[in-house]
Amino acid sequence: MSDLRKRGGLLLLAVLLCAPPFYLDAFWLRVGLFAMAAAIGAVGLNLLSGTAGQLSLGHAFFLAVGAYGYVWLAGEPGPGLPPALALVLAVLLAGAAGGLFSPVAGRVRGVYLGVATLALVFLGHHVLLTADSVTGGFNGRSVPPLEAGGFAFAAGDPGLTVLGVPFGAEERLWYLGLALSALTWFTARGLLRARPGRALTALRDSETAASVMGVHVARYRSAAFVVSSMYAGLAGVLLALSFRRVVPDYFGLALSVDYLAMIVIGGLGSVAGAVAGAVFVTALPLLMTRYADQLPLVAAPGSAEGAVGPTEAARYLYGAAIVLVLLYAPDGLHGLARRVRARRRPAPPPPDAAGPPRPPAPAARAKERTP
């Protein structure tokens, strides 16, 4: 019965997630697209940091590899490959970049690995600014639209309407984002429930105990870094398709810090927690920008100097959320939701009230037969 209820809940959730393009405007669809791209990248970082216990500050570098890899492979100048093939190759390119760095990840841990991955962000930003022929330099490059089977995920066909709703770029990309997010969700959960996930969890808890149980420490560390890089590359491709233009300044240290905030707020080691944290951190500044004129102590974009803008206010808020999570809910939003569900479950009946009355003990029965 519980499996049937779970499948029904998943079906209902799928129907609800397919409905927004028919009812919401382009702003809310863009918010959802950015949140889905962030969720894909956060799931990858959570596999690395939350499950394997590897600190990484270079996640923005691998997002940039995926985004610019797709733009160069599918665009001009570049090979001009079919966009669907360019997407797959961009993800593999991000995985290859993670593979080149994986020997370092296999031998370094903790804050030392964090500093090593931090160098990737600065190195990648320098390359993006100087390799003009590939990246377009400071101004970036426009993103070729994705096409699959003759169907373009762009606003190039104004005649496409579904149930009376014109489908532009945001509406089409919404379903692409849903498909990629579902792929990320199920592959990550399957990985965590299988032997590699258990090995990574054992590695996080105790390297000595994991090695005694037969876990190859360096190999699993390297593999976790490669898989996390591939998730980041896929997130970078979806982010580029949503923005429609990629610029180097977006893929800086602030983006890596945002991803760390996502997994801490959502809950380390949890796929659902990573998605929840990504939605929170991504949507908050966009919503505050839209409603800045209605919020107290928040100035609209472009206001006088000294005023707190919506982006800065959003960073203050989720910075405070990180402090509150660390103090009162170390397992994040996912752990908090799990505890709330546990409290709402009905308490089991007391032992005396369950089942038929127990027969008397043998000593008591013998005492009753004694005249």
From TrEMBL:
Principal location listed in the UniProt entry: membrane
Alphabetical keyword list: Cell membrane, Membrane, Transmembrane, Transmembrane helix
Highest taxon of source: Bacteria
Annotated membrane topology: Multi-pass membrane protein
A matching Pfam family: BPD_transp_2
Region Disordered, residue ranges: 340-371
Record localization: Cell membrane
Keyword presence, Lipid metabolism: no
Compositionally biased intervals (Pro residues): 347-362
Name of the protein in its database record: Branched-chain amino acid ABC transporter permease
Organism in which the protein naturally occurs: Streptomyces glaucus
